[in-house]
Amino acid sequence: MRFADFPFLRYLPFLIAGIIVGNFSTLSTATYLLIGILLIWLCYLWGVGKRPPVSLGYTSGLGYSLIFLLGFWVSGMSVKNPSFSFPQLDSFQAYLAEVQRFDLDKPNSKENLVEVVAVRDSLDWRPAAGKILVYHKSDRRLQPGDLIWFQKSPEEIPGPTFPDEFDYKGFLAKKGIFYRKFIGNEFVVMGSSENRNPKFALVQLRENLARLIESKIHHKESRQIALALLIGQKESLDKEIRNAYAETGTMHILAVSGLHVGIIYAIFLFPLRAFKERRKIPVGYLVFVISTIWIYAAMTGFSPSVVRASVMFSLIIAGQMRKRRPSIWNILAFSAMLMLIVDPDVLFEVGFQLSYLAVGGIAGLQPLILRWWLPSHRAAEYFWQLAAVSIAAQLVTFPLSLYYFHLFPTYFLVANLIVVPLAFLIMSVGVPFLFLGKIPAVGDFLGLVLDRMIVFQIKVNSMIQSLPFGKLDRLTITFSGMVVVWAFLLVWGNWELGNRRKMIFSFFLILGVWLGDRLIREIRRPSYQIWFFSSEKGALIDLQLGRHDFTWNQDFPPDQISFALDPNRLLNQRSAQPNSLIGIRENDSVWFPALGFRFYPDEKLIQMERDYSPKIQIFRSTEGD
C-alpha cells in the first residue's frame, strides 16, 4: 500500500510541528494565525488563477500549511499564564476556593487541589480564577465541591534548582497549576456545591469504586494493585510494588492503558464470533460495547492511552457495523490528532508518547517478527504471538524508556508472557466486579477471587524480579541516538515496501549525524570538571578527573541527592557512588591539596590555587529542602 493511502498519517506530523512551534513561540497566536491564513489564501488564489495551473503538490503544501497553523493555534490557546489568574498575589487578604478532588494522604499532611472562585482585596470581594495545590492537617477530609475560605496567600511553585532535576513546576504548569500553599487548620469550609455541579460526577464515581475495592479486597498489596489496575488510581502504590513491576517490564499493567481497553474489548468480542459466522453483526450490541468502553475510560480518568485505545476500538467497531476494516494506521493517526486538538499539551506527556509508539511498533513490526518462527502447535502459536507483541512494543519504546527512566528490564519477555495473561484473567473478573460489586453475595465472591488472583500475580512478579541480572540500570541515550534507533526500525519495517536505496541513504545520513554529535560531545568534554551543589541543608562537590569520579559531602541530604543530583550524574556518565574526596579543614575553609582548590563553607565558594582552569559549574538552592 502507498503512503498516500493513509491521509491522517500524513496530516499528523504537520499538526505536531505546529504544536511544538506554538508551545515554544512567544508570538501572538491570534495575530500570526490570521496573517498565516491570509497568506495561504492569497497563495491559493494565485495558484488557481495561474495558467497553466499549478501542480497538485503546490495545493497539497498549502493544505499542510493550514494543518500546521491549526496546531500552532490550539497550542497557543492552551498556554496557561499564572499572571492572568493572580496579577498581584500579596494584595489579596482572603480566598474563596472550590475543592476539586478528594484528599490524597501525604506523610505529614493531606494534599488537595482547589480552584479559586473569588478573592478579597482592601475594598471588596471580586471574581478570580486559578488552581492551587493546598496541604492541610484538618481531621475533616475535603471533598469535591466543598467551598473553603482561607487567608494565606499562595506561593509560586519553584522551578528546578539543580541541572537535569525533574521539572515539577513545568509538569504542573501543563495542568494549569502554578501555586501551592500549606494552610494547616487555618481554613473554614463554607459549604458545598457538589450537588449543583455535575463536573464532580466522575470524581465521585471513581471514589465510590475505590471504596468498593477497599471494602472487598483485604490484602494491602492486592488492594493497591486493584486500585491501579481497575480504575487507574496509582497514588497509593508502595515504592516496592512500583519498583517490582518496573524492573520486570510490566509497569504498563498497573497504568490503565490501551491494554486494559483491549482486554475489555476482547471480553465482549467472544459473543460476536457466532454472528460473524452468519455475517450478521447486531448493531445494538456493538453500540453497547462502545458505550462500555467509554464508560470505563471515564471511570479511569481519561488517561491518554485509554482515550487513544477507546477512540481506536470505537472506530474499529464502527467499521464492523459498516462491514469495513479501516487501516490501523489511519485509526492511530486520527485518534492522535483528535487528542492533540482537544489538549495539545498531551503531546509532551510520557504516557502519550509511549502509548502511540508501542501501538505503532506492534502494528508495524509484529508481522515481521512472527515470520521468525511458525509454531506447529496451537498453544505455542498463542504464546509466540504474545511474545511477538511484547518484542515489537519493546523494540520501539526502549529508546524513549532509556531517555526518561534509564532502566531496561532484562526479563521483560518472560514477565509479559506470564503477567499479561494473568492481567487478562484479573480484568475478566475485575470489570464485572466494578459493575456488580455492590450486590452482597456476588460482590463478596468476586472480591475474594480478585484478591487471590492478584496475590498470585504479585508472587509471580516478585519471583521474576528476584532472578539474577534482572535489570540494567543507569543507562542513558541522547535524542540523536533515539532517532538512529527509530530510523533503523523504520527501514526494517518498510524494507519490502519502499525504495530500499532511499531508505538506506536516509539511515546512513541519520547515523552520520549521530556519530558527528557523539564526536562533538567527546571533543567538548573537559578532562577535569567540578560540580558544586549547595542548599541551606548542606553542600556537595562532585569532581570528574578523566574517567575517575570523586565526591565530597557536607550534610547534603541523601534523599535530595537521589532525585536532585543523581540525574545530572547520570547524564554526564558519572558514577552513582563516586570515590570519597579527602579534604583538610583549615579554619574557615576546606583544602583539597591533591586537586589544588579550596572550599569556603560559609560563603559557599571555591577558590582555585593552581595555574589551570577546570570547568566549574556552581548550582545553589535557597530552599531548605
Automatic annotation (TrEMBL):
Chief location bin: membrane
Domain of life from the UniProt record: Bacteria
Membrane topology note: Multi-pass membrane protein
Residue spans crossing the bilayer: 7-24, 61-79, 251-270, 282-299, 328-348, 386-405, 411-436, 472-491
Keyword Aminoacyl-tRNA synthetase: no
PANTHER family hit by this protein: DNA INTERNALIZATION/COMPETENCE PROTEIN COMEC/REC2, RECOMBINATION PROTEIN 2
Protein name: Competence protein ComEC
Native source species: Algoriphagus aquaeductus
